[in-house]
Amino acid sequence: MDLFDVYSLYDIEPVRGSGSYVYDADGTEYLDLYGGHAVISIGHAHPHYVKAIADQAARIGFYSNSVQNSLQRQLALRIGAASGYEDYHAFFCNSGAEANENALKLASFHTGKPRVVAFSKAFHGRTSGAVAITDNPAIQSPFNATPNVTFCPLGDIDAVEQELTKGDVAAVIIEGIQGVSGIHEPGDDFLRALRSLTSKYGVSLILDEIQSGYGRSGQFFAHQQSGIRPDLITCAKGIANGFPMGAVLISPEFQAKKGMLGTTFGGSQLACAAAIAVLDVIEQDHLIENAARVGEHLISELKQIPGIKDVRGQGLMIGFDIDGAPEIRKRLLFDDHIFTGAAGTGTIRLLPALSLSMAQADKALSAIRAIAG
Fold first, then answer.
1. In angstroms, rounded to a whole number, what is the distance separating the alpha carbons of residues 230 and 251?
2. Nearest alpha-carbon partner for 91 in 261, 283, 242
3. How far are the Cα atoms of 185, 242, 291 from residue 191, in angstroms, in the given order?
């Protein structure tokens, strides 16, 4: 048996990591400005994180959600305190796509309505419901097609209101910052208008903070800059620094019923221990503040580099447009030993650990200047 060949792979295999660096089997060091697709929040192999997982695995790694799990409540309290959403409830699952699926289901249960409004260029995951609200026909099979999703242009509040007046919309879902499409911000005014409209028409507002959350934007959640409070917030990626986990944060207006949601592996003892350790490090090492400071430096310096056409983002969620982006990414990887991400064929994305240092940022900037110039 061999692997199902669906990934385009670089001929590099990281076998260990430390902080913002990964190493191949020959010991070659690579600066990681991609974070495994915004997943590595506190850095690779952080000692506190490693110890927390090892200690928990030595006690009990997993038991089902048919029994008490005090680590789930501990984690929920910690997320509430860190984010400012103390009065919300948490449902833990395994991934961002699963978090979005459950948020959609909750919104539909709550409103009794079937339809969802999403936005152009949105990406919300690859499971069935998540694919349906993702604006990418290339990943939608006939099975995923549904008449219950309408895509509006990002920023077009009139188009959204036109849909909400039809009376059958359960939820509007939007990313705190669009990631896969190339780092596009919805804007504070647009988020505030969305909150006002969804409240007016009795529609649930879902903020997908799977990539933009957990401190990556320089705030705990990217939407918090606008001052709004969504009905549902979805999290994953940085929540457990590489251990598979997702979460839905649910406003107190939602009523729980036994059996309405469920998961086998979600919120396991081992996953919760990993996620608690992540919050420990974020708080003790002031990583959200670091992400804001280092990200501001990167954005400012990138804007000064000739050849870079546009720089977008907040904190350590950054995209910039440049001619020949795919070739530049290869040169950065194979010549300068720097991992970066991409969006389409013209955008390079930077999604490093929140612990990226100013010196490491400057190292990357020097390499980008040399190539772009």
1. 8
2. 261
3. 10, 29, 23
Q: Largest Cα–Cα distance of the chain, in whole Å?
A: 61
**Dihedral over alpha carbons 317, 174, 44, 325 (to 10 degrees):** -50
* Nearest C-alpha neighbor of 205 from the set 287, 95, 335, 111: 111
Mean pLDDT of the chain: 97
- Name the amino acid, one letter, at 295: G
Strand order of the sheet with strand 169-175? 89-93, 246-250, 232-235, 204-208, 169-175, 115-119, 149-152
**CA pair distance 226, 191, nearest whole angstrom:** 7
| Nearest Cα to Cα of residue 323 among 345, 303, 301 | 345
Tens of pLDDT, residue by residue over 48-57, are 999 999 999 9
Whether pLDDT at 373 is above 80: no
Q: Which two tokens stand for residue 231?
A: 């009905």
Q: What distance lies between CA 108 and its chain's CA centroid?
A: 23
Query: H or E stretch including 159?
Result: helix 157-164
pTM: 0.97
Phi, psi of 322 (to 5 degrees): -160, 140
Handedness of CA 171, 175, 180, 182 (dihedral sign): positive
Parallel, antiparallel, or unpaired: how do β-strands 341-343 and 347-350 relate? antiparallel
- Tell me the backbone φ, ψ of residue 350, rounded to 5 degrees: -115, 120
**Burial class for 45, CB neighbours closer than 10 Å (0-12, 13-18, 19+):** middle
Contact predicate 211/179, CB 8 Å: yes
What is the token pair recorded at 47?
Answer: 């000692």
- DSSP tag of 144: G
- Is 71:273 a contact under the CB 8 Å cutoff? yes
Question: Nearest CA to 90 among 238, 239, 237?
Answer: 239
Minimal CA–CA distance to 240: which of 274, 211, 213, 214? Answer: 274
